[in-house]
Amino acid sequence: MKKHIKPLPDPELRAILRAADDIVAEGGRTLLSKILKGSKERKLLELGLDRNPSYGYYKDLTLEQIMDKVDHTIRTGFLEREVNGKYPTIIFTSRGWAIEKERRAEEFVQEWDCWLENNVIPLNMEYLKGRNQGLIFLFLYKILYSRNKKFIPFLTLWERIDYKKVQVEIRNVIQALKKCDNMNDAEWKQLLSERAQSLIIRSINPIFLECQSCGRNFIFDEENPEYYGNEGLSFPNECPSCLEEHLLHR
Ligand SMILES: [Zn+2]
After folding, report:
1. From which residue to which does the signal peptide run (predicted)?
2. Number of helices followed by number of strands (H, E) in the chain
3. Of 114, 119, 183, 235, which sits with the fewest C-beta atoms within 10 Å of its C-beta?
4. From the CA of 201, how far away is ligand 1's center (Å)?
5. How many domains does the structure of the chain reveal?
6. Is the pLDDT score of 116 beyond 90?
7. What's the gap in Å between 10 CA and the centre of ligand 1?
8. How far is the CA of 80 from the centre of ligand 1 (A)?
9. In a shared domain, residues 226 and 190
């Protein structure tokens, strides 16, 4: 990340990343901007991009203004351009993917919530199979974190159809949810952090953040479950040593 450029406000950043998710390594910044504009171009509709949750997010801006926002997202290190064949396409940086992955995992949780509320029984769980493992495991972690047994029937359905490595993790989550009522808070916390170690996967390239107190770069600890529990992924503003110092002087 380059210094002293502020990222876009959170809701805008998340909207752009969500739009990018459907065209990663396939489309470029123009196509991305058109999704955000809500373009009715044939190509876009044929690809079903009008179903993207960020479709039309910037409908009141010009394509040029939207392109500026996209470029800003690239400059601040959440997306990057990669030449794929002839044309440059958009891909996530580790940092951008960390945010988008969290959002998609949360969407999966909300979908299950919605199905359960409306007594919808999904025909099958194939839609979860073969997806990005970081995403799927984070979804499982969120299900576990909910400490809610209502998800067990869905987990059981899913466990039947997925690959071995995922099955093992699903089974662990089912077991944990089954026994969570008999655990005290300390035991539960312990179990959560144990499961986090296999369910929260570090990206290949470390995520560097700039400390807002001392200005030094530090590596974001992706495996720290505290950043995933609440709404959205939140990056810490300060490096661990500044944080520690502030805690001491509080
Ligand atoms: Zn610092």
Report:
1. none
2. 10, 4
3. 119
4. 25
5. 2
6. yes
7. 22
8. 27
9. yes
Both 207 and 131 in one domain: the answer is: yes
User: Contact at 8 Å (CB) between 92 and 17?
Assistant: yes
Are 226 and 233 a contacting pair, CB within 8 Å? no
103 CA distance to ligand 1 middle (Å): 27
Instruction: Compute, in angstroms, the gap from residue 221 CA to the centroid of ligand 1.
Output: 14
Residue 1 banded pLDDT, cuts 50, 70, 90: very low
Burial of 105 (0-12, 13-18, 19+ CB in 10 A): buried
Across 40-54, 105-119, 165-179, 230-244, least confident range: 230-244
2 Cα: distance to centroid of ligand 1 (angstroms): 17
Q: How far is the CA of 236 from the centre of ligand 1 (A)?
A: 11
Of 60, 92, 124, at which residue does a domain stop? 92
Name the pTM for this structure: 0.86
244 alpha carbon – ligand 1 mean position (Å): 9
Q: How far apart are CA 36 and CA 30, in angstroms?
A: 10
From 48, 75, 92, the end of a domain falls on 92
In a domain, 172, yes or no: yes
Q: Residue 3: what pLDDT?
A: 55
Centroid of ligand 1 to alpha carbon of 33 (angstroms): 36
3 within a domain of the structure (yes/no): no
User: What distance in angstroms lies between residue 77's CA and the mean position of ligand 1's atoms?
Assistant: 20
**Both 144 and 241 in a single domain?**
yes
Does one domain contain both 88 and 102? no
Going from the Cα of 96 to the center of ligand 1, the distance in angstroms, rounded, reads 22
Sort strands 79-84 and 87-92 into parallel, antiparallel or unpaired.
Answer: antiparallel
Task: Give me the domain span that covers residue 206.
Answer: 96-250
Judgement on whether residues 70 and 113 belong to the same structural domain of the protein = no
The mean pLDDT value of the chain amounts to 91
pLDDT tens digits for range 125-170: 999 998 999 999 999 999 999 999 999 999 999 999 999 999 999 9
CA pair distance 34, 63, nearest whole angstrom: 7
